[in-house]
Amino acid sequence: MLNPELKRLLQVLQWESKKKFASNRKGLLYTADRGRGLDFKEVRNYQYGDDIRYIDWNVTSRTGELHTKEFYEEKDATIILFIDTSLSMDEAKSNSTIQIALFLSLFHIRLGNRIFIVSFSDHIFSSGKWFKTESEVLTFFDQLKKQKVGNETNYLEAYQYAFKIHPKYAVTYWLSDFMNFSTLAKQFKMPKIWDQYGIWIQDEIDEIERPFFLRFFRIIAQESRSLQGNESIYSKDLLSAKSLFGKNLIQIDPTAKLHNQILPLFKVRSNV
């Protein structure tokens, strides 16, 4: 299902990731052994350098010596993908979205990470389970192609659905054209325990300078079919997305080759 350029990039990054993205948080993609896991192991004597957040004060008060809780290390990272399948995602944008989402899924599967995928519009489509094999991922994307396109984009419902399933640390990717996102931004508050990455699938028409007499009759979106004045909602949506994702927002031109455009997701940067 992947185009040839993305297949080659997947092979290259799979090899490079073993050096750059193994068990650290230096890059934009996170893998196993992030730190403390979620499964309790034991209580032991506190040692210099242990995280004070995990001190067991009950045992400490009984024994008179500092004790800390120890957990099994996480052996995989948690990755959540949100895929916009609303009406505004035309064929070019939808194809690019699916290609990138499949690429990210396979990349993380090959790293040993687990994947949860949510397709959203005016309804939610998800298997409701975590994927850990390529065959599971490919089966899901085959099913996704058969789903009906939704009339609207409900970011809030998608977030609430996923957060109810996993209210813990996760790396999340939002793949969308973020159409009318500015109208939802105020009610769309992301959990701070998630690391959020936005992948904006651009609509070429949003960036075109129109003649003055046409600006009063611009269609805002395929979803709403409402009319807009001379101030483009595109700039508002972009501002809202940048406010939410910050430097973790990349913009994708669906008419250009994808493999070069997604490379910023894989750049290593030092922790601040």
Automatic annotation (TrEMBL):
What the entry lists under Gene3D superfamilies is as follows: von Willebrand factor, type A domain
Query: What region holds the DUF58 domain?
Result: 42-181
Q: Name one Pfam family in it.
A: DUF58
Kindly list any coiled-coil regions of this protein: none
Which interval of the chain is the signal sequence?
A: none
- Protein name, please? DUF58 domain-containing protein
* Taxonomic source organism: Leptospira kemamanensis
